[in-house]
UniProtKB/TrEMBL annotation:
Record-listed Mg(2+) binding positions: 324, 330, 333-334
Chief localization: cytoplasm
InterPro entries in the record: aa-tRNA-synth_II/BPL/LPL, B3/B4_tRNA-bd, DNA-bd_dom_put_sf, Phe-tRNA-ligase_IIc_bsu, Phe-tRNA-synth_IIc_bsu_arc_euk, Phe-tRNA_synthase-like_B3/B4, Phe_tRNA_ligase_beta2_arc, PheRS_beta_core
UniProt organism field: Methanosarcina lacustris Z-7289
Enzyme Commission number: 6.1.1.20
Quaternary structure (record): Tetramer of two alpha and two beta subunits.
One Pfam family named in its UniProt record: B3_4
Family: Belongs to the phenylalanyl-tRNA synthetase beta subunit family. Type 2 subfamily.
Name of the featured protein: Phenylalanine--tRNA ligase beta subunit
Gene3D superfamilies registered for this protein in UniProt: 3.30.56.10, Bira Bifunctional Protein, Domain 2, Phenylalanyl-trna Synthetase, Chain B, domain 3
Record GO terms (molecular function): ATP binding; magnesium ion binding; phenylalanine-tRNA ligase activity; RNA binding
Catalytic activity entry: tRNA(Phe) + L-phenylalanine + ATP = L-phenylalanyl-tRNA(Phe) + AMP + diphosphate + H(+)
Length: 544
């Protein structure tokens, strides 16, 4: 789940609340406090609330939750001055585009960082690592409308962000750090996406990199936001970004989007969606009677628009930035949060049963304690993955023990993982903007031949990561688990020859550790040495 750094100065300015109150109450809206620093707090928000991935979004939610400003947030939108046309040839490459202008924003170094972090977290949370959604934020002062979203030859040249010399788009994919990381999103097309202004200046090469001409600085006041992608999540991401900027004092302005054939679309669309909720639905899930007045009150605390239609029905206006409201169940969950889980009446179950810890839980406790003691942070990645990540990126041959998803909704989630390490490497790739070293682990499920097993895996990334480091970790882990073991030379192609070893217990292979092969590191677009291990603990569950 995304961890958001919120600076106290920004929080207090945007909420009007002291930091101690915020720290005390913010977990109740669906968050965990990771760490408290002198100038900021790191908060892990649930992944279904991308609107909270910024200090502006969190402040908006907290103002409602603490009854300082309740009800639906309304944002005035000025008529458009900027337009953008979409060419026919881009529709086969990256067909969805959402745009907006926000003027009068006053930036500081921390607010720029907040905006950049919001971009990256949305790329992960909504965009599946930029595949489905990618966001560009541009300083308007150096470019001129009308803009054009089109496809051009890969040899087209411009100066990419953080560079001073022109590069062709092919060179960017081969040499620029962002290009090498996201090249797979456009490889295979004869032409590449680009956004140009009226003078052929480059704003963006989506979903790869912006042009350096429109980079945002503390002197920037007027912004053009482009969001490109493969589906309607583009519009949700656009709404989240522009409303966050509006919370900072920006004035949202429409953009006229002209599609092939002359069809026109005016964005952003911040009109709330309407749902009807009954008192019976609320009681069925929470287990308590709520009047329509109480339901309205709690929905407004959670920043919905709400009004009673009769004694049993409430009309709810869902903000355009709330991507998580898919069913009335989601509304009821927010009512429970607004009311306070601590205030929900406790009742004794009608039937009595005696429970006990599951063997997996009994194994998980010492594993987690040992790994945390060794300086590793626990993560919880998805168990769904793809053949590319599970096998190809790891330089491993595809096996016949794979359990596939019958009707996958994404190319990234077509199978159940057979190993944990690739998911940990994906997490490292998503957190390259964080400081090094990074050390993470997971005790989690894998599926082989339709049978669920339990593996523990860990990775460490930093410039000096080496075989000795991970050997010491494995040795400490096995000793703490009181498992006599031996190591033998490994042939696992995911690791570097001569710097890899298999772990055996009672003559049976338990797992592998070592230095990840440079090709594996490149496949996950990581820039530093990585070491790791993975052990199958299935046979040990219930025995320790």
């Amino acid at each position: 789940m995304p961890v958001i750094t919120l600076h106290y100065e920004d929080l207090e300015k945007l909420t009007g609340i002291d930091k101690e109150t915020i720290i005390k109450r913010v977990p109740m809206i669906g968050a965990d406090i990771e760490r408290i620093e002198d100038e900021s707090v790191d908060i892990e928000f649930f992944p279904d609330r991308p609107d909270l991935y910024s200090v502006e979004g969190a402040a908006r939610a907290m103002r409602g939750f603490l009854d300082l400003e309740t009800g639906l947030s309304e944002y005035a939108i000025k008529p458009y001055e900027v337009s953008i046309s979409v060419s026919e040839d881009i529709l086969k490459i990256r067909p969805f585009l959402g745009c907006a202008v926000v003027r009068g924003v006053k930036f500081t170094s921390s607010s720029i960082k907040s905006l950049m972090d919001l971009q990256e977290d949305l790329h992960w949370g909504l965009g599946r690592n930029r595949k489905k959604v990618s966001i560009g934020v541009h300083d308007l002062k150096n470019v001129k409308s009308p803009f054009r979203y089109m496809a051009v030859d890969p040899e087209f040249e411009f100066v990419p962000l953080d560079y001073t010399e022109k590069m062709s788009m092919t060179e960017i994919l081969d040499k620029h750090p962002k290009g090498t990381r996201f090249a797979h999103l456009v490889r295979g097309f004869d032409k590449y996406p680009i956004i140009l202004d009226a003078s052929d200046n480059v704003l963006s090469f989506p979903p790869i990199i912006n042009g350096t001409l429109t980079s945002v600085t503390e002197s920037t006041t007027d912004l053009f936001i482009d969001v490109t992608g493969l589906g309607e999540a583009v519009y949700t991401a656009l709404n989240i970004v522009v409303t966050a900027l509006a919370e900072r004092g920006g004035q949202i302005e429409f953009v006229r989007l002209i599609r092939p054939g002359g069809e026109e679309l005016v964005l952003p669309d911040l009109e709330p969606k309407t749902r009807l909720l009954t008192t019976g639905e609320v009681k069925a899930l929470i287990g308590m009677e709520f009047s329509v007045e109480e339901i309205v009150k709690q929905l407004e605390r959670m920043r919905f628009g709400a009004r009673a239609l009769d004694e049993k029905t409430v009309e709810v206006k869902v903000p355009a930035y709330r991507a998580d409201i898919l069913h009335n169940y989601d509304l009821v969950e927010d009512i429970a949060k607004g009311y306070g889980y601590e205030n929900i009446k406790v009742s004794v179950p009608e039937t009595y049963t005696a429970g006990k810890s599951h063997p997996i839980s009994l194994m998980r406790a010492p594993v987690n304690e040992i790994m945390v003691g060794l300086g590793y942070y626990e993560v919880m990645p998805f168990t769904l993955t793809s053949e590319k990540v599970n096998f190809e990126n790891m330089r491993r041959q595809k096996t016949d023990d794979v359990t596939y998803v019958l009707h996958p909704i994404s190319e990234d989630q077509t199978m159940l993982r057979t190993t944990v390490l690739p998911n940990l490497l994906e997490i490292l790739a998503l957190n390259q903007h964080r400081e090094l070293p990074q050390k993470i682990f997971e005790f989690g499920e894998v599926v082989s031949n339709e049978i669920t097993g339990q593996h523990v895996a860990a990775v460490s990334i930093h410039p000096q990561a080496n075989f000795t480091e991970i050997y010491e970790v494995v040795d400490a882990f096995m000793r703490e688990m009181m498992l006599p073991y031996e190591v033998k030379e490994s042939e696992d192609p995911a690791f570097l020859e001569g710097r890899r070893a298999d772990v055996y217990v009672n003559g049976k292979k338990l797992g592998v550790f070592g230095e990840l092969h440079p090709e594996v590191i490149n496949n996950f677009a990581l820039g530093y040495a990585v070491v790791g291990f993975e052990l199958d603990l299935n046979d040990l569950i219930g025995k320790n």
